[in-house]
Amino acid sequence: MLLSLLLLTTMWSADLHLHGIVRDSVDRTPVSGASVHVIGTLNGTFTNREGMFHLHNVDTSAYELDVKMVGYRRARVRIDRAAMLRGADVHLDVALVRDTVQAHEVVVQDHRSAQTGLATQNVYTLDDEEIENRRGQTFSEVLTVVPGVTLMSTGPSITKPVIHGMSSQRLVVMNAGVAQEGQQWGAEHGPEIDPFTPSTISVVRGPASVVYGMGAMGGVVNVEPRKLPSTSVLRGEASLNGFSNAWQGAMAASVEQGRLFGAPLAIRVQGSVRRAGDARTPDYALTNTGFKEIDGSMSVGYEGDSAGVVATVSLVTSTLGIYSGSHIGNPTDMLRVIERGGPDVTYPFSYTIDAPKQQIYHLLTSVRAYMTLPSVGTLKATYGWQQNNRQEYDAHYAHTTGPAMELLLNTYTGDVSLAHELLPSMQGTVGVNVRRQVNSRGGTVYLIPDYLAWNVGAYLLESYVLRSWTFSAGVRYDAQSLDATLVDRLSGIGTHRETDYASATASAGALLAVADGITLGANVGMGWRPPTVNELYSNDVHHGVAQYEIGDPNLVPERNTEADLTLTLARNGWNVEASVYANAFQHYIYAVPDPDNPTVTVRGTFPTFRYTQNAATIAGADVRASYQCTDVWQVYTTASMVRGTDQDQNVPLIFMPADRMRLGVHAHVGDVIGLHDVSADVSVLGVRTQDRYVAGADYAPPPPGYVLTDVTLASEVNVGGTALHCSLTCKNLFNVAYRDYLSRYRYFALDAGRDVVLRLTIPFGGS
Amino acid sequence: MIRVVVALLVVVVGMQGCKESATSNGQNVDHDGVTTVTLTLTNTATLSTQAFVWEDLDGVGGAAPNRIDTITVAADSTYKGSLAFENRKASPPVNVTIDILNERNNHQVFYKLAGAMATITTTDLDGRNLPLGLKTNWTSLKKSLGSLTVSLSHYPDSTTKKGTNPSTETDVNVVMPLTIR
Question: B98 — contact with chain A (CB < 8 Å)?
Answer without folding.
Answer: no
